[in-house]
Amino acid sequence: MPIWKPDFDRQNNAILTRFARSIEATKPFAESFDYDGLYCWSLASSPQFWSAIWDFCGVIGEKGERILIDADKMPGARWFPDARLNFAENLLRPRPAETEAIVFRGEDKVERRLSFGEIVAEAAALAAYFRAQGVAPGDRIAAYIHNGPEAIIGMLAAASLGAVWSSCAPEFGVQSVLDRFGQIAPRILIAVNGYFYKGKTLDRADNIREIAGKLPSVQKILLVPYTSASPSLDGLADAQLWPQAIVAHEGAALRYERLPFDHPLYIMFSSGTTGAPKCIVHGAGGTLLQHLKEHRLQSDIKPGDRFFYATSTGWMMWNWLASGLASEATLLLYDGFFNAGEDGAILLDFAAEEKATFFGTSAGYLKQIEKQGLKPRESHDLSAVRSIASTGSPLLPDSFDYVYRDFKEDVQLASISGGTDIVSCFVGGNPWSPVYRGEIQCAGLGMAVQVWDEEGKRVTGHEGELVCTQPFPSMPIYFWNDADGEKYRKAYFSEHPGIWRHGDFATETEHKGFLIHGRSDATLNPQGVRIGTADIYNIVERLPEILESLAIDQEWEGTTRIVLFVKTRESAELDDALAARIKRELFEKASPRHVPSVIIAAPDLPHTRSGKLVELAVKEIVHGRPVKNVGALSNPESLAFFANLPQLADKGR
């Protein structure tokens, strides 16, 4: 039984309904006017579908005659090869100048509100500054910046003239930034002077000087005042404060360079915990079309909606959030500790006070506030919220219960999954379909998502690899410094030529929804049977004593065994009784194969800066292998615990 269904009014008033009616004359629906019928048509008539997205969403630009060429090649298919457009022009489509475009909060220290007219004027001035520095289409602009208005404005200014934008959050360490920006040779470096976290002010001056000194390509530095009004430029060559650059070009008109559909827009980076971060280049047209589809049709974001996602500029959800401007939504930006405030509810405070209609967060956040005992429906007015989205890691079934019990009963809970690789989602929500406990609602329109077994055959109701069998517009256009495309092909197409292998371990359900069990490379394999880590976490973390868990498989006496690390509440400890209970729960509610051979209490578990558990880093340390790019972690100091644990000594060696 579903735990939520949209009522008639919600379905009837959804943008998805208007879109379906707009194409109904073409008779795309085989038997029924429902999501499945629309989805099947979007795959069977893929060029017509994406052309219809362009038309329905009113993309500004010249579409051209051809929609898709070399459709049988993946990679190699090309979308809208004759099109010309500009990404920023589509995000800044005309609306009243006084419309609120951005509301920003930096913990409880800073609050700013910017109108649409203000962000257009500031983006125009910044673009004029870039042009004065000789920035041309294809040049890279790198930003070491917080999730504030300047990040959005900087991206818009860069995109308006065809420059390529790339960003890292200011909590990244120097080496992590250099590992990323050092590969792409940026011409301009934008940097924030500091940031707030857990009520503390953290200065970035030393980091910026070191980063700038090791990026010889940088010709100009723009320093953004945030934690202080007039930060020092000492030690920074060719540097200027952001406000001075804006004032110097005040009144400039915003000019848009219309460029090919595949003109590079973003360079984004893989997490880099097992090697140098991959530099993934995304095109302007594919990013725009995919985000318009996901925001309007899948998420029902309408003009005037108030769109929040808890993110940072180092995570692809920032790019996804920024595109909300193209749907004429107001962006609600937050920077800092997500659990700030006396009761750890600062994000809920923000959502309630600003009447957020879309509340986006992570599975980890929902799990954490449930463990804290927060009941938002009793403490906050969330009447405006229509949709709650969760990503970053699998959303466990208990979290579905929590949302509908303690958050809001009448809300669409959309667990979504995709990634930096496609700057969007493979699977997610839609406003027509019911929500089933623990399940992602559907595959995204136009995304030929399947689950394959180890023999390359499609399976339903069974775990396997998440793949995509048809090209789609938001595939990376290439990897940076990968002239022959070898790294690109190896990343996604080495397992099944011509088929995108995403690297998620998943199940397609009887409802045509999806379960994500974790990353394929973190999948456990005791005695040759594959087990998703999320299946273990789902059971273990129901226990009140357990805050979080992490499972790996350890090489042991010629085979592998499961090792489970748990982080307990301060008031609890992992004694023999709790360990036995964990094993019993896994035995009874999963299978004997899910029962770990060893359970160890850990003081902390490592996460990426987007909040994902890093099983692979722990596995490498346990096996005595080095972990690369630990700066990609939010808490790299946590790794020290896992080295040379006596509980894991291999007696057979």
UniProtKB/TrEMBL annotation:
Tree of life domain: Bacteria
Start and end residues of each Acetyl-coenzyme A synthetase N-terminal domain: 35-90
Gene Ontology biological process terms in this record: lipid metabolic process
Domain AMP-dependent synthetase/ligase intervals: 96-471
Cross-referenced InterPro entries: Acac_CoA_synth, ACAS_N, AMP-bd_C_sf, AMP-binding_CS, AMP-dep_synth/lig_dom, ANL_N_sf
Gene3D superfamilies, per the entry: 3.30.300.30, N-terminal domain of ligase-like (3.40.50.12780)
Molecular-function annotations in GO: acetoacetate-CoA ligase activity; ATP binding
Keywords for this protein: ATP-binding, Ligase, Nucleotide-binding
Family named by the database record: Belongs to the ATP-dependent AMP-binding enzyme family.
Protein name: Acetoacetate--CoA ligase
